[in-house]
Q: What sequence folds into this?
DNA sequence: GAAACAATACCACTTTTGGGCGGGGGAGGA
DNA sequence: TCCTCCCCCGCCCAAAAGTGGTATTGTTTC
């Protein structure tokens, strides 16, 4: 049984091309296509679509907003972005909004079909350039986890501290005396090269110890 | 001209299979393969490798460490992880360590070759399941910056607190009395719905207020 | 078997923190 | 104009945080 799909794309010629390309396949059936996504919810209801190909630059409501709207009502409907934009903002906004894939418009027809199949199998297809951006994003953000030679117990105490527990509460949770907690924290502070709890919490989160 | 590649894989049979599979292609030439990556740097020097297929679970030094080492010396050599592990930690650690791709071992031979070609063209190939994890990571991580209606002054005080300053130091930096600092922090705690400094620091960092 | 370390605990002590209550001056909107 | 909000300052007080020292037990490591 072919997957029911709908298309949002404001360029009429491209829209028709996509329709032709994708309807041809046994795996997909294009139920409808629209020049904008303002009435996306109704469109999904009428067509019982399982898969959506979504442009970003459209009149009225842009694709990122569209995804957000669709996903809040139909979280299980797959949405694949299909756009010329390859800037960080649009890519990451789309992903955060709930897109299940991000394809650039220079994707070959064959690859496009393969990617749509992939998304129906639970994958998250993206164009190579997009994938590269995503990888870069990971490498810039997080400071490496240095561990700081914390013992398991110390990590446990530190985690509880980060959660906002007082010494007394930590002692209680760990079933040890409050003085032991103090001792642990003292050691932790030395190992992290900090002087107080707030600093330790900041460092712990920033270095992904917790 | 085929791309020179080397393989790190501790399973002898799989290593040989990979060698056969990849050497067959006109686009790749397997220069060597090794059961561990302790001498990766020398291996690259000797073979002038441009591309590396890297297992994770290996004796001596694991693949994530390996990538880190390789990338710190040869940032332009492409490294693709090839492993059975599909847990968040290994995936994200690998990416952060500098991996250019992450393929699971259930990848079909054809797909494997295609992915290696993709990485040589500047892409970042990953198995569908991995891609999905990556997408999920974006959606869970960045909690929206809610602002919490903090006034400029309160933000300033909060920032100083996050940096590990004591009340007294904050008072000094802001040239106000310590009691004013207390008052500000009390208002901040209320606005963030927390009860103490450590919790406020955690929330501030997690919500990207600072 | 000694040395090192993790984890536990107690004591004494100082400083910091956080909560509560009060009030004043200035800027901006209903 | 009055009201609200931001920013500022002060005092009191109890609780929590942080520092120092000493010591015991078990495990691991050399």
A:
């Amino acid at each position: 049984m072919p997957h029911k799909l709908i298309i949002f794309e404001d360029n009429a010629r491209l829209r028709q091309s996509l329709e032709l390309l994708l309807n041809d396949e046994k795996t997909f059936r294009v139920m409808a296509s629209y020049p904008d996504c303002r009435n996306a919810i109704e469109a999904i209801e009428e067509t019982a679509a399982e898969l959506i190909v979504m442009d970003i630059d459209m009149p009225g409501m842009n694709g990122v907003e569209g995804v957000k709207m669709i996903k809040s009502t139909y979280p299980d409907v797959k949405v694949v972005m299909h756009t010329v934009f390859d800037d960080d903002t649009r890519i990451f906004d789309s992903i955060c909004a709930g897109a299940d894939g991000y394809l650039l418009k220079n994707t070959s027809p064959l690859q496009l079909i393969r990617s749509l199949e992939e998304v129906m199998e639970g994958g998250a297809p993206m164009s190579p350039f997009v994938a590269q951006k995503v990888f870069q994003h990971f490498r810039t953000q997080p400071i490496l986890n240095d561990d700081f030679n914390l013992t398991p117990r110390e990590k446990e105490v530190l985690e509880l501290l980060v959660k906002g527990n007082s010494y007394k509460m930590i002692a209680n949770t760990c079933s040890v005396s409050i003085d032991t907690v103090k001792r642990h924290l003292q050691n932790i502070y030395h190992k992290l090269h900090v002087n107080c709890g707030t600093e330790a919490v900041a460092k712990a989160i920033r270095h992904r110890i917790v």
